[in-house]
Amino acid sequence: MKKVNALVKRTTAVIMSAAIAMGVILTPAFSKEAHAADTNITMGSALEIPNNSFVEGSVDYNDPSGGFRWYKFTNANNCDSVAVVTVTASTNNPECAVFNSLGGSDGKSTYAWPCATFHVGMKAGETKYLKVSNGEWKGAWTASVSISPEEANTFETAKKYKSGKRINGKLNYLDDIDIYKIKAKKTGVMKIAITNNENHYAVEYTVYNKSKVAKKNGDVLKAKTANTKMKVKKGQYVYVEIKRKNVAFDTDLGTYSIKTKIK
After folding, report:
1. 66 near 72, Cβ under 8 Å?
2. pLDDT band per the 50, 70, 90 thresholds, residue 40
3. Higher pLDDT, 195 or 105
4. Residue 169 · residue 241 · CB < 8 Å
5. Torsions phi, psi of 28, nearest 5?
6. pLDDT in tens, 143-161
7. What is the pLDDT of residue 223?
8. Could you tell me which CATH number the domain at 2-149 has?
9. Position 2 confidence tier, pLDDT thresholds 50, 70, 90
10. Is pTM beyond 0.90 here?
11. CA–CA gap between residue 236 and residue 130 (Å, rounded)
12. Which CATH architecture is the domain 159-262 placed in?
């Protein structure tokens, strides 16, 4: 019997982890009830969601709080990280948004039917807040949080590539910045093509010389490609920085590609 119980626990843990990663609706058998649901009605009384965990929340008709429920989550890593916050509605269509400790929004609010996912950048030790509201209507939902370290985006930690190699990148959250270090295979003019794969917003690029001085800058409109160039010598490094242009536009991830060629 002990072996059976251990197997059940391991199986349950696997199912819970998969459900959190996919943002699916969790059945009561694999849910953790938010017992403080009636008290987490302000930011100051927010209910903690541990990393890689989830809670259930609900409001009834004409809830005296106005239909608000607050949650908080903290980056326990000693580095910048990205939190994937998913709210899955099981009743009605609650509105949700993420805030920093000062009450500033980390992106526009959105509705969670069937689910809404936020990708939130976090500093080491930082706490952020999730607000879920359903107004005067009855509503129920599951909220999950998964926090993982984010690769540092500085000149010193930039990923290295050789010219001619295609780079595929992704902006993981609203104010994410990616920096690449590209080594020239030969002397000439390096042509750089940046393609924005998204249909929702523009990305901004900046090209730096070997001394990390900005030389080129521009926008890449949605689903478009921007081209620029720079003179280089063999073995010289060029830095390319990519970030979202419309920082507060929405919560989507942003994918892009960079191609280089020297003539």
Report:
1. no
2. very high
3. 195
4. no
5. -55, -30
6. 999 999 987 678 988 999 9
7. 86
8. 2.60.120.380
9. very low
10. no
11. 46
12. Sandwich (2.60)
Residue with tokens 């009743």: 91
Do the Cβ atoms of 15 and 30 come closer than 8 Å? Answer: yes
DSSP 67-133: SEEEEEEE--SSS-EEEEEEEEEEES--EEEEE-TTS-BSS--EE-SSEEEEEEEE-TT-EEEEEEE
Of residues 157, 168, 174, 151, the one with CA closest to residue 100 = 174
CB 131 within 8 A of CB 105: no
CA terminus-to-terminus distance, the chain: 71
Between 258 and 117, where is the model more confident? 258
Domains 2-149 and 159-262 in one fold: yes
Q: Degrees (nearest 5) of the Cα angle 36, 42, 44?
A: 90
Residue 25 bridge partners (DSSP): none
Q: Could you tell me the residue ranges of all domains in the chain?
A: 2-149, 159-262
